[in-house]
Amino acid sequence: MSIAVPATRAAWALQDPLLTAYYDEEWGMPVREETGVFERLSLEAFQAGLSWLTVLRKRESFRRAFDRFDPEIVAAYGAADIERLLADTGIIRNRRKISATVRNAAATLRLRDEGTDLAALVWSYMPERSPAPRGDDEVPSTSRESAALAKELKRRGFSFVGPTTVFALMTAIGIVDAHLVDSPRRGCSGLWNRDGTRVGE
Q: Which residue ranges does UniProt annotate as crossing the membrane (predicted)?
């Protein structure tokens, strides 16, 4: 007699109730508007070298500190704003990451002048297939597409956008489905089948 294997979340999603809620309600759901993509790109950059839980705990403080991640407002930040942010105990106070967020906001605005926007650029790197991991050890941390997108973002003036950070962004906003095959959240974006093929193919 076979024993049914229960559907499973990724191990990281079980480490804290905040992570579980993020996994169950948000991670992997499509985000296609500019401000939402800019926010998540910024938060992924702040997460570099730290835990995602640290960022999640400070997320609302980040949103207040960075004017809800409105690129037009953040791009206009000057030296006084940088010092304000460095004094804000509610966020991760890293000068390089704060400065990179301001530069990335300006780069986001330049994309508009070039006839595109950040969301469209990021989504244009959606792969033909998504990973289909059966265990946490099979979940990749980068991909050919994340490396190519990181290179393009850097060319466009973005920083703190290495292939790992970009892949994390892509999984967070549904461009890639990195949920385990047996996870109840697999396919939650409506874009990917359980086997990693695109819906409709």
A: none
